[in-house]
Known about the structure:
Elements: H1 2-27, E1 37-40, E2 43-47, E3 53-55, E4 71-72, E5 86-89, E6 92-96, E7 102-105, E8 134-137, E9 140-144, E10 150-154, E11 178-181, E12 184-188, E13 194-198
Antiparallel strand pairs: 1-2, 2-3, 4-7, 5-6, 6-7, 8-9, 9-10, 11-12, 12-13
Amino acid sequence: MHSNQARDTVMNRFTVLFLFSVCLAVGYAAECQVGETKQEECNSCICTEQGDFACTRKMCLPPHVKVRREISVPDPEEKQCEQGAEWKQGCNRCFCTELGEPVCTRKGCTRMPPAPVDKGSPRSVVTTCQPGTKWMEDCFECLCIEDGTPVCLRMPCKTQERPKRSPKPSGKCTPRAEWMEGDMHCFCSEGGDPYCVPKNS
């Protein structure tokens, strides 16, 4: 009788250990397959080797909020422009398309007093300038237009220093993309060409 009791005790312990192992394994089951992707609101997620999702941490807008990005045509007297040129009209950014036509964003602008001319070195961020002046800033050739606004065109870099972000291969970029490159705020035209202006202009 003593051996039956010992055998039952061993079997009970084995059963408990087995059930504990099954519960433990179920509790640590992989949440996803490695490489699997999913979208959570505006964030992208990918399944890691540990079997759980790693996601970007963007602040997402509520579903009912819509962001409007419109393009408008400037005043009729400005029908032609130099392809690749960038400038500001009030608080709106404008650029010249591949067809030589100006297009601008349409934001409601508030009036602000004019900023003083920045007389620093060419590497400083110029927000206003002396009309007619030209200068080089990193890999950009800049010209000051009549209203004192700097307009810069991206040129081939002559230095060994590589820009922090360069256009896609063959000089193309994603249409309507925006990015920072050194002290320049860059935009991509509808045709995939990059154009840049000084960051604080």
